[in-house]
Amino acid sequence: SPSGQSVLAAELTDEVVARLSQARELKVVRADSYQAAQRLRQKTDYMLTGESEWIHSEMRLTVHLVDVRKGTQLWENTFSINPGALFIAADRTADTLLQKLHLAVAFQTGMNRNTISEDAMNAYLEGKRYLKKNNRIAADLAVQSFKKTLRSDSTFVPAWLGLGKTYLAVYDNGWDRNLVWFHLAQQTSFKVLQMDSTCSRARFI
Length: 205
Description:
alpha+beta
């Protein structure tokens, strides 16, 4: 569906940004609109843009890296991305960009970034859509979706992070001030840190 494709593209962007942000030499800023991107031109050294199209069940993503100071394109590449391998594709994209910028980052991660089933990925993306609605009913549905993904693959870290963020949202937004939601968020973040002790998003939760 178009909405599902939009969530998938947003998830890929989030993962690439998160990985690039681990390079200490980079300050990564997102431009969520064309106007914002134009304003940032005066403040940034590089700009990353991309266009995506869907061919059958795959996303074809064309990425451009531009040197804003010189007004020249440094690199362009096209990736064919299977939704089930989205996180592998994000790693590959970010690693290639870091190489082009002559930055070497030693990533230490225990995250399961292997290909997962289409049903599990769809459940995960459904959970992300519900979480963004930012209301209690949608939060309950998000929990169900993330748990469905974890029943398929209990080591899939992004679903644990989504679950933790949802539990925390229930408590922080005042939808239910029972401390059980706070403790559930803590437990899920500890679960992630057992699998990946360097996960900054789990530490934030």
